[in-house]
Structure formats: C-alpha cells, structure tokens
Amino acid sequence: MDISTTAQCPVCEQNLGLTTQPRRSLSCPEGHRFDAAKQGYFNFLTGRGTNFLEDTGPMVLAREEFQNAGHYEPLAELLSESISGHHPEDSLDLLDAGAGTGYYLNEIIESLPGSKVDALALDISRYAMRRAAKVPHTLAMVWDVWRRLPSANNSRDVVLNCFAPHNPEEFHRVLRANGVCIVVTAAADHLQEVREPLDMLGIAENKESSLIEKFAAHSLLHQHSRQLKYPMELSTNDLFNLVFMGPAGHHLSPETLRAKTESLGAQSVNASFGVHTFVRKG
C-alpha cells in the first residue's frame, strides 16, 4: 500500500515515512514513531486521549451491517459523482474527516479505477479504523478531527466530511487552492417516521445556512448543495442497526432498543440528506 508523505506527525508536525520491517510503523525525522495495530490502523491518540466518546465495537458493527445492506448506497454513488470532477485526471489526494468504517471512502476509490489514490481516514473510534484500514490506498488513523489534522498544508484535493464534526479552519489548511470540501448532513426530514418512537436525537433547524456561514468564515465558499431523498424498506433488524450505529447508541441500551424496534415492526422510512460542496479560495 502506498503511504503519503503528506501525513504528518501529531507531535512535531513533520512529514511521516513508512517502514515495513520488523513491523509496520510510521516515523518522522525527529524520531517519533507510531506502530500499527495488528488490524492495520495507527492510534495517534495514545497517551493524549480525547474528550469525546468513541463509537463502540457493537455500534460500529451495527453501522457495518446497515451499510453493507446497501441502504445508503445512493448516497455513496452521489459522493463518488460529486468528487469525480474535482481532482487531477489520474490522481486523488483525499482526506476523510470522521471516516467511520471507510464505507464511503471505499465506494469513491472503487469508482476511480486506474487513478493513483492517496487517502487518509481519520476517526476517534478504534473499532471503526479497524475497518477503514482495509480500504485500498488508505492510511487509517485514530485521531480527533477537532484538533490539527495530521496532514501537510495544501496537501489534499478533497476533504470528505460525512455526518462528522466540522473543522473548517483545518479543512482550509490542508486543501490545495480550488480544492473542495464535501460535507454530508442529515436533512430535517431524515428518518422522521421513526425518530420519535425510537428516541433518536433531533436535527437542528437552519443547519444548511449555519454551515455555509461557518465555512465562509474560513474562506471555504459554498459552491452548491444537492438534496438526496429516497425511501428505504427496513426490517426490525435494520431499524435496530440504524439507530444503534448513531449517537443514540451512546445512550440507549441494546435491550431497550431491540424491544422498541420489535414493537414498531418493519417500516418504510425516508432517507434525506444534504450534500454540500465548498471550494477553497486563497
């Protein structure tokens, strides 16, 4: 697997290089070294930690099962289409901030056969990075995306930010001139049929306008937004995975949620997303 020289040490911010023997590790000229876990990802939060909760193993498993069932495949296809025109012809340097299992990243890379891809996947969940480390041409790092991103200035053609914290100041720093940041948010009517009966968290009002304002303050100019809405036919197990894989998984017990989904039964539920494209200027 090719590893980018634009990945940087979180301690001294110098570029990292890869060694493969005796075991795979990343090191910088100052001698800071990070060994890969046996699953292939690197944990940059060792010793420093984070104030945020990582998605647990069961939560990540629920997400993997839900995504592998194809329910969000239309979104993955739209993301691949959105990125196709925003990189050099035969290459793509991409950073996925809040990558989760790497599902969207993998779909994007598969849509670019023959291109040289260098992807950096970041997430605070070790369990998610175990999956993302299997995505081709991807360096998976456990990291808090609220902090300085471990990538060099002007090193990425695209930043992907799906249902994850926004750090527009850092997105601007790592993007090349005219690079794009693609942000996916849940629309106000996303999953509205089951939000209340399954105790899911609400969606803030005026989300798009506040997002545009926040990014404009860091010279990331709104290019366009695309709305994606479609029905999903979900079994009770799909509903369980859908709820448990998200923020609700941190405060709902699996037993309580399982009972709620069984009581509700199979449902037709609308997925509704906003896919927002911002361009780096200056």
Automatic annotation (TrEMBL):
Keywords (alphabetical) are: Methyltransferase, Transferase
Q: Name one Pfam family in it.
A: Zn_ribbon_RlmA
Q: Name one GO molecular function term.
A: methyltransferase activity
| Gene3D superfamilies according to UniProt | Vaccinia Virus protein VP39
One annotated GO biological process: methylation
Question: Which branch of life, at top level?
Answer: Bacteria
Question: Which parts of the chain span the membrane according to its record?
Answer: none
Q: Where is the 23S rRNA (guanine(745)-N(1))-methyltransferase N-terminal domain?
A: 8-45
Q: Which InterPro entries match?
A: RlmA_N, rRNA_m1G-MeTrfase_A_prd, SAM-dependent_MTases_sf
Can you name this protein? RNA methyltransferase
Look up and give the organism this protein is from. Answer: Glutamicibacter bergerei
At the highest ranks, the source species' classification is: Bacteria, Bacillati, Actinomycetota, Actinomycetes, Micrococcales
